[in-house]
Amino acid sequence: MKLPNGLKRTCISLCLLALASPAAADVEAVRVWRAPDHTRLVFDLNEITDYQLFTLANPERVVIDISNATLLGDLGDLDFIDSPISGIRTAQRDDKSLRVVLDLTASVKPEAFTLGANGEFRDRLVVDLFDLETRPVTTARTTPVVQQEDKRDLVVAIVAGHGGEDPGALSYDRKIMEKDVTLAIARAIRDRLNSMEGYRPVMIRDGDYTVELHDRPKIGRENRVDIYLSIHADSYSGRAAQGVTIYALSGETADRENARRISQKENRADLLGGIEGDTNIADVDDDLALTLLDLSMAWSIEQSVKLGTNILASLDRVAKLRRDKVQAGNLWELRSPDIPSLLIETGYLSNPEEAKKLATRAYQERLAAAIVEGVMAYFYVAPPAGTLVAWQKANGIKPAPPASYIVQRGDSLSVIAQRHGLTLNELKSRNGLTSNTIRVGQELQLGSVASAAPAEHTIRRGETLSEIAAQYQISTASLRRANNLTGDRIMVGQKLQIPSL
Ligand SMILES: [Zn+2]
Known about the structure:
The protein is an alpha/beta fold. The chain folds into four domains: 126 residues, Immunoglobulin-like, CATH 2.60.40; 241 residues, Aminopeptidase, CATH 3.40.630.40; 43 residues, Roll (Membrane-bound Lytic Murein Transglycosylase D, Chain A); 48 residues, Membrane-bound Lytic Murein Transglycosylase D, Chain A (Roll). Helices cover 30% and strands 23% of the residues. It contains 14 helices and 19 strands. Helix 6 packs across helix 8 and helix 13 crosses helix 14. The longest helix has 30 residues. The radius of gyration is 28 Å and the shape is elongated. Bound molecules: zinc ion. Zinc ion binds next to loops.
């Protein structure tokens, strides 16, 4: 794709430019790559020119009219293997435009944009043909959903930090391990996303084992992941540190990392998965690879910060924030070049109180609910085209966290209550249930999840029930009811559920 006699060619086109008006553009080369979900064609131009893109049906074709353009060379060498393109034809039209017709074996959603010259690269016209049929996905979902072509689910990859031989951070008393806390929170996020339309969670780890870092890009690519959430818990010397910190990749690290990856010829398919993802990528020259990587990384960092800001805003309501802005980190886990990625430190296991909270189901659920709320807020602002959420937004439907739950095989009432941040009694009273018997397929009302999520209070020396009630602005009676207390007798260390208002 380099021009051996580029200088000469520039001169020729400059001479032409002097004679012809308006200016004419040369199409100097055309390149093609196949990615998991789309096919990309790049037209190398000696200058940016207007274009028109449209489709024709029966048979399916994509037509690209490039204004005032001439094709240099021929396109016989293009390899369309694995792509929906069966052939390419060009014609020079009377209005001096170059018409490029792509014959297709399947309909696609075409998009085009121009890229200005950059370093060694000429101006470019990029045409992406997005597949309309999504590829089969390997991860099972609790409720199988028929995927409509234009309303795909947003895919959220959840990485539960550590696992297996690697316990991660330990609590002050070494009883609580980070790998268990992260897995529990990750599962709570998964369950919440699973019960909502338009989202599909993918667990990168769903058990006590480690997933190699280098396997993650492949998992991400196979599942067409939209965002990565990596869940962790921190530890620090001393007991004082506490609260949530969210990290996105720093721009500086990204630049350094990209240059290193290109120079070390790191697996290009993993690196540029979302952009190209084809075995041909090994043949792409270093400058193009670096340009693509930089473009894609800059976008994903910007998106990561937006996502993180949304999640911090919702976490602020249920947890202490150690930092109220997304922090720039250079952690390995964040170095996914094309997918917005966050590392969420949910709190400090070195802080005895926070460690205890992090180990409780109720707090894990509250964190998960807030994280999911932030994810929803982020996606609702600018939903990717072709997703159900984009369709919902276009139709004025504001997605809400799940208001009801359909009982699945193997569920028990107490597990459903826990999973949705409710006490068993709350769930029963919301559904007028007098016993714990439920049946598969039964719909349970959950109420407003966010406001119903109970807080937990551990009783300290000298506290009384009425003081605790006052602290949470609730009545002593409702506090008694929520905890099945008959009198005012409480014990130091006892945990109380704090009902919502
Ligand atoms: Zn960790």
